[in-house]
From TrEMBL:
The lineage of its organism: Bacteria, Thermotogati, Deinococcota, Deinococci, Thermales. One of its GO terms (molecular function) is ATP hydrolysis activity. It comes from Oceanithermus desulfurans NBRC 100063. The keyword Cell wall biogenesis/degradation does not apply. This is Iron(III) ABC transporter ATP-binding protein. Keywords: ATP-binding, Cell membrane, Ion transport, Iron, Iron transport, Membrane, Nucleotide-binding, Transport. It comes from the Bacteria. PANTHER family: SPERMIDINE/PUTRESCINE IMPORT ATP-BINDING PROTEIN POTA (PTHR42781), SPERMIDINE_PUTRESCINE IMPORT ATP-BINDING PROTEIN POTA (PTHR42781:SF4). GO terms for cellular component: ATP-binding cassette (ABC) transporter complex. GO terms for biological process: quaternary ammonium group transport. CDD domains: ABC_Carb_Solutes_like. The keyword Lyase does not apply.
């Protein structure tokens, strides 16, 4: 049985659609990232699942239990869903143990303590149980918030930008820890984020949202390497959008005749990510141009190449010998991805 089913859920605020025909399912223990720009309705989606907002239409089911829709609205505290939000909201006057046992009102004192010790062990904070929140680092506080959400043994946990207030290094390690903890406990999760790397590295599947609707939903590799729309291609990192004329499995483009990701005929829009292009010395087959920008990133280099057919962004390894002003040839290393730019491509999944 599916852990979570969101069936055609829509929500308006002041007459404005904020969530449009949201539809997805989660397997038990699966982690889904909802990724989209600011204001695209991500937090509202989470609040609808949590029960902090009522759906205008559609249904929300947790396993066999209907939580929302058809006149039904189970309140948040009765849904059996855990939440972790951006600001952790720990009680400053309670120690770690007090924070974690706080919500376990249905258990007796000994049982509350046992369960709290168990989840603190799970998040690696057993030795910190007597500390107050201000005596912990941001990452440790975040793990206390997670322990508190896990203590009542929810099958599903909702995470709203939970790592955004941590600095880069701590964000990555906390994220890895939280993923491992959720996987170990077999708890399903929906993570809301506007950070592409976070979504791709944390989730089993990623839903890319735009204007309140899912534009593409799939495993991280699929949404990154095979985006279906220009929005998804551009939102998940940089890409070169290239017009072409398709003839079956190839297309005529400014970069020459290229293999393409699927059968197509006529005008197409293609996506080639910077790492899917390479630079060669003049004289090789490909499109000639000159380098107008060089960006050093440590482990790799990004070049912008001006050609008579427009500018291209190319990513190479750190040893590439070129600098601004050099003449080069741009050549694709992979088949170009055919995007669906028709209006129906933006319909929800
Ligand atoms: N209670 C509300 N009343 C009226 N409008 C609201 C309410 N909550 C959210 N909105 C509006 O709905 C839209 C989507 O907001 P939401 O917070 O869901 O987006 P988001 O994708 O989570 O954005 P961010 O990444 O900036 O947090 C915004 O235009 C917001 O102003």
């Amino acid at each position: 049985m599916k852990l979570l089913r969101v069936v055609d859920v829509s929500k308006r605020f002041d007459g404005q659609p904020v969530v449009r025909h949201l539809r997805f399912e989660l397997e038990p223990g699966e982690i889904l990232a909802v990724l989209g720009p600011s204001g695209s309705g991500k937090t509202t989606m989470l609040r609808l699942i949590a029960g902090f907002e009522r759906v205008d239409r559609g249904e929300v089911w947790l396993q066999e239990k209907q939580l929302s829709g058809s006149g039904r609205h189970v309140p948040p505290e009765a849904r059996g869903i855990g939440f972790v939000f951006q600001d952790y909201a720990l009680f400053p006057h309670l120690d770690v143990l007090g924070n974690v046992t706080f919500g376990l009102t249905r258990l007796g004192a000994a049982e509350r303590r046992r369960r709290a010790e168990e989840v603190l062990d799970l998040v690696g904070l057993k030795l910190f149980r007597r500390r107050r929140p201000h005596e912990l680092s941001g990452g440790q506080q975040q793990r206390v918030a997670l322990a508190r959400a896990l203590a009542p043994e929810p099958r599903l946990i909702l995470l709203d930008e939970p790592f955004s207030s941590l600095d880069a290094g701590l964000r990555e390690s906390t994220r890895d820890d939280v993923r491992a903890i959720l996987k170990q406990a077999g708890i399903g999760a929906v993570l809301v984020t506007h950070d592409q790397e976070e979504a791709l590295s944390f989730a089993d599947r990623v839903a890319v949202v735009r204007d309140g609707a899912i534009e593409q939903l799939g495993p991280p590799e699929e949404v990154y390497h095979s985006p279906t729309t220009p929005f998804v291609a551009s939102f998940l990192g940089h890409t070169n959008l290239i017009p072409g004329q398709a003839r079956g499995r190839v297309a005529d483009t400014p970069l020459g005749t290229l293999p393409i990701s699927k059968e197509a005929q006529g005008r197409v829009l293609l996506s080639l990510r910077p790492e899917h292009l390479e630079l060669l010395p003049p004289g090789h087959a490909g499109l000639e141009g000159s380098i107008v920008k060089r960006g050093f990133k440590g482990h790799d280099l990004t070049f912008e190449v001006a050609t008579p057919q427009g500018r291209f962004r190319v990513q190479t390894d750190y040893r590439a010998p070129w600098g601004v002003g050099d003449e080069v040839v741009v050549r694709p290393r992979e088949a170009a991805v055919v995007l669906d730019s028709s209006p129906s491509a933006t319909a929800s999944v």
